[in-house]
Design goal:
Arc Repressor Mutant, subunit A, 2 domains, elongated, Tetracycline Repressor, domain 2, about 75% helix, about 180 residues, mainly alpha
Length: about 180
């Protein structure tokens, strides 16, 4: 049965996300992605041109940050903590980026770009201080990425066993301090 180009492209992206998440960027091959998608490897190249471009498309994401400016200023850290945990639980693209960012410069740059582009403007709006926003964003990202690395990649038993609410209560005050100041 023949698939439409839209369905073929979607199947390639789904297979690429799975392979990149499981094997990392370096060990993932176009052939493995094609096999997982049930197509010839030439079709992967036809739609995406290169492994690098396919990775960029597979790992393209919006953090879908909540509108923290609309919240009470003394609760933004907890709101961001809850959002981070919820996103990591369901978003393979974040896990793909995290796994591959540890091994490839391109992936690391993509991760830095996503967090900077999405966190810095929000923090600037929250604090009114564009000079400190990049440092605050970097510190907040360090917590989000550190949690994700330990819970979802390394699978540290204490973190894997914590409930969502417990993580939010532990992480919330730290993010609060990084975002706007002391809780």
């Amino acid at each position: 049965m023949r698939r439409s180009s839209t369905h073929t492209k979607a199947a390639i992206l789904d297979a690429a996300r799975q392979r990149f998440a499981a094997d990392g960027y370096d060990r993932t091959t176009i052939r493995a992605i094609a096999d997982a998608a049930g197509i010839d490897p030439s079709m992967v190249m036809r739609y995406f041109g290169s492994k690098q471009h396919l990775f960029a498309c597979a790992a393209d994401m919006d953090l879908q940050l909540p509108d923290l400016v609309a919240l009470p200023p003394d609760r933004v850290g907890w709101a961001l903590a809850a959002h981070i945990v919820d996103r990591w639980e369901v978003d393979d693209a974040l896990q793909i980026l995290l796994r591959t960012a540890m091994t490839t410069d391109e992936s690391a740059e993509r991760m830095r770009g996503i967090f900077a582009a999405q966190l810095v403007p929000m923090i600037t709006e929250l604090t009114g201080d564009p000079g400190q926003a990049p440092a605050r964003a970097g510190l907040a990202a360090s917590q989000a990425l550190g949690l994700a690395l330990c819970r979802y990649v390394l699978r540290f038993p204490p973190l894997v066993d914590l409930s969502r609410d417990a993580i939010v209560e532990w992480l919330g005050p730290t993010l609060q301090r990084y975002l706007v100041g002391s809780p």
